[in-house]
């Protein structure tokens, strides 16, 4: 939004669609709109009818939409086209509206690839990824493309979905919990997320965390989940979902506005979004 905070009929609207929306994306984007003096505003929604919500993006001229669980795959038939980043994953986390034509992107993959590089996580490490949804697909694809060759996709419940994801990227599959200790643990489930009824739970047994080297929790809110707090207590290297969400939101921001914020602006926006 403009630095004056004024919203007019010329103001461009961007939104997010999530079953359990938080204020993180809203605060992140609006912080940068204000920082850069852009006439945009961002609002989070929890749609009860996804088809109607996507039609609203088109019909109301909404510039873009962030897409979260459980809509990342369900929204695909409602779009006009997919960017390669979304087509490869068959999962969308960003919709961009260009004159009524809706194109789906996936910036989660790029963000995960970036944090693995930034944290210098060695691709020689064996991993276990817990989860089999759209975000899990982005994580597993990023691990493969970062050079990881040994790992297991652990489906919390659906053995069929877990096996399909593992087979797609050339990894092993398991159901329920990680079959053995591995150096890299990645949680891509809502376990530990605030407001889910599981905010105090651990996605991995303590024994697995004790024997890990790196613990990566994709849950963004809170930024220090029970899993990350335990890993920190055990002096493990950690990667937070807060880092991922800031990086993917920065890519969304660039897609919506045509302006790419600096690393410092992304850092400050991320801190503000979680304050």
Write the layout of secondary structure elements.
Blueprint: E1 12-17, H1 24-36, E2 40-45, H2 50-60, E3 64-67, E4 81-82, H3 84-89, E5 94-98, E6 101-105, H4 108-118, E7 127-130, H5 134-145, E8 151-155, H6 159-169, E9 172-175, E10 184-187, H7 206-210, E11 214-217, H8 226-233, E12 237-240, H9 241-257, H10 263-274
Parallel strand pairs: 1-2, 1-3, 4-6, 7-8, 7-10, 8-9, 10-11, 11-12
Antiparallel strand pairs: 3-5, 5-6
Helix pairs in contact: 1-10, 4-5, 4-9, 9-10
Feature tags:
six-stranded mixed sheet; alpha/beta; Rossmann fold; 275 residues
Question: How would you describe this structure to a colleague?
Answer:
With 275 residues, the chain is an alpha/beta fold. It is 39% helix and 19% strand. It has helices at residues 24-36, 50-60, 84-89, 108-118, 134-145, 159-169, 206-210, 226-233, 241-257, 263-274; strands at residues 12-17, 40-45, 64-67, 81-82, 94-98, 101-105, 127-130, 151-155, 172-175, 184-187, 214-217, 237-240. The strands form two sheets. The protein has a six-stranded mixed sheet, with helices on both faces. It has a six-stranded parallel sheet with strand order 9-8-7-10-11-12, with helices on both faces. Strand 5 and strand 6 (101-105) form a beta hairpin. The longest helix has 17 residues, at 241-257. It is globular, with a radius of gyration of 18 Å. The model has no long low-confidence stretch (mean pLDDT 92).
